[in-house]
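ok so dumb question maybe but i'm new to this and my supervisor (M.) told me to 'just get the structure for Dihydrofolate synthase/folylpolyglutamate synthase' and walked off. so i did the thing. is this what she meant?? sequence i used:
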Amino acid sequence: MSHIKPSQSSSLDDWLCYLEQLHPANIEMGLERVAQVANNIHLLNTPSKIILIGGTNGKGTTARCMEAMLLVQGHTVGTYASPHLIRYNERVRINGQELPDQDHVDAFCELEQGRGETQLTYFEYGTLGALALFKRYAVEFVLLEVGLGGRYDATNIVTPYASVITTIDLDHKEYLGDTRELVGYDKAGIFRTNTPAIVGDLNIPHTVTDYGDEIGAEMILSKRDFHFTPLKDGLRWQYQNYDMHFSNPAIPAQNVATAFTALAKLDLLPDEELLRTTLESLQVEGRFQQLSHSPLVYTDVAHNPESARYLRTKLLDLKNQGFKINVLVAMLADKDKASVINELDKVVDSWTCAALSGPRAESAENMLSALPHDKQASTRTYSSVSAALDVILPEQSDDTALIIFGSFFTVADAIQYWKK
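this is what came out, is it supposed to look like this??
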């Protein structure tokens, strides 16, 4: 079924199966092919103001924060994010809402007719499909989340109104390099001459600023041009004439500060009252998301050392409230499991390991071997997240918090388990 070219009357599932098999590789770096197809169907001559959002972690929460702040002022906004948790439709939002399957099918039909013999990866197809939908809906602003790196990512074919880098850490080392300087240089590829480039990382590699200076980007840097200070009951954000205090947001304060700075630079920040009420109501699925009050259960997409360090701060908050910490972890095989576990182990009271499904999934036994030796004997392994939850949830006491983390796939499994 998936080898036969779908049509406009085919289902979105048929199209996605087809797209998965169009290109022999999941990832192929380079912009020539995707730019050629975009030009074939005139996707790049759009009046929308496009903000590119790159970074190792925090892209999704930064984009969601900016989206909310633009929508509350009445702007029309298209947002592209990946990967999705449950449904492909989550990747493209118009004014905060997912689109019906047929909209995606129509976009894929347009791309299929326009690509000729050019091969595209699944992600490239999705990126061009999103751009086609944003053009069709004629949104004022597009928030485009960069997939991998920046310089050679499919999203980088656009001409941005501004570029944002959230954080820089080691991930996808086989593509981006094994130092923060190499990763930073790749991510800085989304900068443009005389265009705002906002960087939220707290220890910015010199390669980022060197490249920005070399091309004449308008650099706005954390700890130099804008600041955020965590407070006991919230955060303080400072940029130019802004000096504001907020109660604790549900998303990382660093990403809030980066989003606010980008919008302030573009003169797109709402008034203070709207700013506060919108931030207070902001929730992002899968980012330290509470699934249950009794028993107390959270899930988080953390899958690299930097995101694990942020997760550790949330676990320390729970420890300080008197909770024991039980962790259920399931990750992909190409992630740095040992480093992630090392960031968390000192605050975790007990571990449980589960396997994910799919070609990149890590086995529960390999997850177990990444734990410290003194923890392995007492740690149970399960064939899936749901199989683990069937056993450990009935055992959980009121003084224990369960955290399910390690991948977008892990979070998706946890959310679907709860929905059942």
